[in-house]
Amino acid sequence: MSLESLLDCDAVGIATAFRAGDASAAEIAEAALARIAARNPVLNAFTDVTADRARMQAAALDAARARGDAVPTLAAAPFAAKNLFDIAGLVTRAGSRINRDHPPAGADATLVTRLEAAGALLLGGLNMGEYAYDFTGENAHDGPSRNPRDTTRMTGGSSGGSGGAVAGGMATIALGSDTNGSIRVPSSFCGTFGLKPTYGRLSRGHSFPFVAALDHVGPLSRSVRDLAASYDAMQGPDPLDPGCTRRAPEPIGAGFDSGIAGLRIARLGGWFARHRLAESDAALDLACTALGVTAEAALPEAERARGAAFLITMAEAAEFHLPRLRIRPADFDPAVRDRLIAGALLPASWVQTAQRFRRWFAAEAAALFRHHDILLAPATPMYAPRLGTQAVTLDGVELPLRPNIGVYTQPISFIGLPVVAVPLWPAGQALPLAVQVIAPAWREDLALRVARQLERDGIACAPVAAFGA
Amino acid sequence: MPDATPPNPDAVIDALLPATGIPLDPAWRAAVAANLAVAGAIAAALQSFPLPDALEPAAVFEPGR
């Protein structure tokens, strides 16, 4: 297999080839860096490339293999991280102009450390919407991430470079963060698998925050086995993140491939059946047909749940950014700044009501999971819109596009449920749209099993986009 | 009890902005007011939903508990 073809494999596939001696880590690293040099000027996924570090890590892997040491799970697989994750020696931009005046990070983010310990090769930091307050992948300072499926379209955000790097074949795995949908939206628009784990499952240590009550971190990839392998490699408590669970790791191993026999799966109706466009209907129908799903479930008050997430986001983010808003308001992306200033003016009772409502809604979801093991809903109402699009018509009403990209993702992250975003292809090879496979808290294993079933059935896939097509 | 009515965004800006210390360029005001109006409508809908007195907030949130 040529190195070019090898780069189109998933992370486990590349690690397997490396283990078998089909390619050295140095060769893989050089090929991956050459591909970034060729593709990134178009896709704008990487904001920093850590070439020297990748070469050093590759040399260490080659030396270890030559000594006969055990080869780790993700050995020589190229990965990258949204630029809100600290990478030692780089300034952590968090998509902003303001933060690039900070000194370089002195240490790596916990998840970067853990993926590197599993053998993966870090290639750099990835473009994102400013301070993660974004669903488009557009960035006022670094330019937009461009969708590898069609470079005139949005990647989705805020983990836009993460979706672009994985779908564009520049990384096998990309780290993203998801507060209201920022892993699941780029997965939907770019056609990648994405895992937003249970709130608190994976450490946010040494990443730049957005909304502490709602911030999650997780991987995007081109296969379910890569989600599972990277998820297993990244689990574990971390004193650096006060929200990180103290539960022992629950590795899924090969369990993601154990089928769906006995699982009670339903599609979500109500709020999740409104705002549909033909493509989100078609994607959900594809998944339901493949899985034999006929049941429909209702998660009550999802609209209010979305609203509550909206208020908590505004208020917490505003408080967090208050020092910057006082001193450098003109240096923010205007779309972010105006929401943050409004957030600084919210009455405390609004936010407290939202927090109380969160507990009520979580209990409703838990009750629903007594009757179902998995709930399905689209990740986005629409295919990736063209860059610069400002409005969308949903249910016959013209609405601002940006906030309405997340109508289906926001109520779910609000209560911390684990979700795998599974890319489906309602219009053949043209554009993807993901379905959310939603599981009860702490049951990522169930969501991964259903995602794998859809992948095994050939319904879901995330091939590298043809470059220059 | 009557439902809460969303406050006038301009009145909120005038009343509260000085307490935040954020310098507001007049050119930004309309967008800030629009965002406040959206938030106010959401809050009114949220506060019209009867939550039990015994329901405590999820300020420290641990899924599954």
How is this structure best described in words?
Chain A has 15 helices and 13 strands. With 469 residues, chain A is an alpha/beta fold. Chain A has one domain (3-456): Amidase signature (AS) domain (Amidase signature (AS) enzymes, Alpha-Beta Complex). In chain A, strands 1-3-2-4-6-5-12-13-9-7-8 form an 11-stranded mixed β-sheet, with helices on both faces. Chain A has a two-stranded antiparallel ribbon with strand order 10-11. By secondary structure, chain B is mainly alpha-helical. Chain B has one domain (1-65). In chain B, 48% of the residues lie in helices and 0% in strands. Chain B starts with 8 loop residues before the first helix and ends in an 18-residue tail after the last helix. The chains are: A alpha/beta (469), B mainly alpha (65). Chain B: It holds the Pfam family AtzG-like. Chain B: It comes from Neoroseomonas lacus. Chain B: This is DUF4089 domain-containing protein.
